[in-house]
């Protein structure tokens, strides 16, 4: 099942997501649907709040980026359930980020180079892993969704003011050239 993507302006994207248990209904199917939705939307990561579920879960598949970076991303396909970032360290570096929930906008975002995260995988095995570079950046971006934070929150007030018209259009469902269904907030 392909879900519509919840877009900027929805209060759901601003809520802190809740943890789930092993008995979460149809979890395996939901994870499969998240990957299908992410692929359909041409994303490399997708958090549950972006498809309307305020739960602490995100999926990543950055294997397509492998040819575009110097990093080894060919096996970077993962499910993160109830993740907790333990630390964000290393030099901050700028990189142009985008988001399925904020279509057609890219901004240079500064993030730490290294992250240590603890999470459960789809088999409920606990992991504590360290990631660096692009992997760390993708994890931090998706994790922010679980905390109710969007990448535009990390840009200057001046940049946000300059983007206000575009952001308001997205909130109204007026994003151009979007190839996936969007779910806007009903007022």
Describe the structure.
With 187 residues, the chain is an alpha+beta fold. The chain has one domain (5-183): Peptide deformylase (Peptide Deformylase), CATH 3.90.45.10. The protein is 23% helix and 33% strand. The protein has three helices and seven strands. The protein has helices at residues 27-40, 133-146, 157-171, and strands spanning 5-6, 45-47, 57-61, 77-99, 102-120, 126-132, 182-183. Strands 2-3-4-5-6 form a five-stranded antiparallel beta sheet, sandwiched between helices. A two-stranded parallel sheet has the order 1-7. The longest helix has 15 residues, at 157-171. It is globular. The mean pLDDT is 94.
Short description:
The chain has 187 residues and is of the alpha+beta class. The chain has 3 helices and 7 strands. The strands form 2 sheets. A 5-stranded antiparallel beta sheet has the order 2-3-4-5-6, sandwiched between helices.
Give the SSE layout.
Layout: E1 5-6, H1 27-40, E2 45-47, E3 57-61, E4 77-99, E5 102-120, E6 126-132, H2 133-146, H3 157-171, E7 182-183
- Looking at CATH, the homologous superfamily is Peptide deformylase
What is the count of helical runs? 3
CATH architecture classification name: Alpha-Beta Complex
Secondary-structure element series: EHEEEEEHHE
Which CATH top level class fits? Alpha Beta
CATH topology: Peptide Deformylase
């Amino acid at each position: 099942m392909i879900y519509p993507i919840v877009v900027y302006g929805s209060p759901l994207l601003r809520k802190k997501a809740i943890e789930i248990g092993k008995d979460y209904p149809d979890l395996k199917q939901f994870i499969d649907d998240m990957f299908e939705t992410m692929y359909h939307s041409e994303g490399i990561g997708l958090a549950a709040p972006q498809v309307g579920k305020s739960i602490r879960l995100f999926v990543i598949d950055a294997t397509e980026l492998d040819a575009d970076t110097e990093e080894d991303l060919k096996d970077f396909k993962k499910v993160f359930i109830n993740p907790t970032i333990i630390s964000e360290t290393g030099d901050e570096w700028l990189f142009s980020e985008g988001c399925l929930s904020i279509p057609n906008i890219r901004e240079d975002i500064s993030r730490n180079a290294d992250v240590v995260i603890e999470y459960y995988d789809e088999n409920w095995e606990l992991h504590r892993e360290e990631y660096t570079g692009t992997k760390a950046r993708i994890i931090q971006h998706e994790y922010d969704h679980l905390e109710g934070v969007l990448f535009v929150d990390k840009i200057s007030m001046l940049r946000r003011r300059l983007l206000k018209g575009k952001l308001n259009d997205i909130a109204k469902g007026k994003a151009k050239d979007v190839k996936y269904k969007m779910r806007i907030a009903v007022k």
